[in-house]
Amino acid sequence: MIKLEWDYPLLILAVLIFLWLYTSREDENIFFKHIVRKISVYLDSASFMIYSKDSKGVGPKYNKDPDLIASTTTSNKRKRLVFIRHGESDWNNVFNKGFNLSMFARLANAIRQEFFLLPSADSVFIDSPLNFEGIEQAIELRKYLQSGDQTVSKEDSNTKLLIQMLSGKDTTTLSSIIVSSTLRRAIATTTLSLWNRISQTGEKIHILSSLQEMSRNVDTYALSTANSCPDLPFARVAPHCDNFSTEVFNCSDNFGNKTRTFYGIKRLQAFNEWVFKRNEDVIIVGGHSLWFKNYFLTYLPHKVDHDAKKKKIVNSGVVAFDVYSFEANDGTISYRIDPSSLVTVYGGFTSK
């Protein structure tokens, strides 16, 4: 048997430091508290990456064909969903631009930045924020929404109405609500792209735990705690949003970080349940490529061959569609996307 030998003085010191930090006032020892919390988040995210099966239960392999469900039950509810994918993040900039020598330079620079961010509530890797290119992508979407309805043909009246709704020009024809993932890049993209509407209506962006991205990667692990909004960083977002205030975020449905028991299909189902409890006609969703793709894989009919199942929505791209709920005789609720309702409002899907 291996005998473990403890360095008791170091162990006692560690306990004393923990008690010192734990018993101090909230506004005391901020520097050290941030370091301890950041290390804790690193460990949690690493554990999640190793042990989780975050996309468990999604897709046609694990779910009945929505067409079969639709043929045996009656739909009594319909909602219009508008998916807005986040812009480019710091993580994307490091890892998603090809495996080459420049990637190692980007990685080294990101690690250097991460070291200096250790005593802060910010991170390059964990809950990776929008980078400056991503901010520009979100602002370009905002500009398009302000003028895009003028470029849409009269025959495409539904898309025209969606653009007017997103820009804030018409928020009365269809009632709608804005929601976002708990992750910073989704919140920031939603805020930046829809700010003209938000500043006009004074409405809130509702932060939903069920929308957190599906992946083991640490960039999909949230920095925010329950009922709170993370620093986006606000210093990157505020200059592009007149009269910006953190009061714009409603965090009552942010229940904290995803867990290994609240995996893929459970988050999709939780989101659908939330959607169909709402009175609004349209749900505007700020979110992520894999979450969106898994939603399409799960709720589009199995026979449908569509880019939404195979490709990602482009950065700051916008796609809209109708989803229906069906209730079986035993009370089971199922969902089906109407493939004929799928439209690209802006950007579309990636080429691969």
Provide tags for this entry:
alpha/beta, 14% strand, globular, 352 residues, eight-stranded mixed β-sheet, 41% helix
Written overview of the protein:
With 352 residues, the protein is α/β, with parallel strands linked by helices. Helices cover 41% and strands 14% of the residues. It is built from 13 helices and eight strands. Strands 1, 2, 3, 4, 5, 6, 7 and 8 form an eight-stranded mixed sheet that branches. A hairpin with a 5-residue loop joins strand 6 (318-327) and strand 7. The longest helix has 22 residues, at 30-51. The protein is globular, with a radius of gyration of 22 Å. The mean pLDDT is 89.
Question: What would a concise description of this structure say?
Answer:
The protein is of the alpha/beta class.
End-to-end CA span: 54 Å
Range of helix content: 40-55%
Question: Given the helix and strand composition, which structural class is it?
Answer: alpha/beta
Beta-strand content estimate: 5-15%
Average pLDDT number: 89
Work out the helix count: 13
H/E series: HHHEHHHHEHHEHEHEHHEEE
